[in-house]
Specification:
The protein is mainly alpha-helical and about 130 residues long. It is built from five helices and no strands. It is elongated.
């Protein structure tokens, strides 16, 4: 599991990419709701501003760094499954079309059947 989330070698199929993307989204929603939820429901701007204290700031920073690392690691493996360099993950920085192409490439297009230069087929029977 740690290889999937933190390493940049190997391959990952679409299902793993979607599971990780959705898990990161759910965790982020829960953390942001816990930090900002009660303050936002109060409607008091001062209470909302004070909710972002030093501890909340550190939690948010650590969460963003960890989520970014995990998402990039899985995306690199997903590009490897498509028999492309992991550097393709940088396509998200192309305005307008980059994010859409990233979603199509990683989330919807199938990987290379059989082994490729990045490793064995993740869908092959073990």
């Amino acid at each position: 599991m740690t290889d999937l989330l933190f390493a940049f070698q190997g391959r990952a199929n679409r299902a793993k990419w979607w599971v990780v993307a959705l898990a990161i989204f759910v965790v982020e929603v829960i953390i942001f709701a816990a930090i900002f939820g009660a303050a936002a429901m109060s409607g008091d701007p001062e209470r909302m501003a004070s909710a972002i204290g030093p501890i909340a700031g550190v939690v948010i920073f650590v969460m963003v760094v960890l989520a970014t690392w995990i998402h990039v690691a899985v995306a690199v493996k997903r590009y490897h499954d498509r028999n492309k360099s992991g550097w393709w993950v940088l396509i998200v920085f192309v305005p307008v079309i980059g994010g859409l192409w990233y979603l199509i490439e990683c989330g919807f297009l199938p990987g290379t059947p059989g082994p490729n230069r990045y490793g064995p087929d993740p869908l092959a029977a073990v």
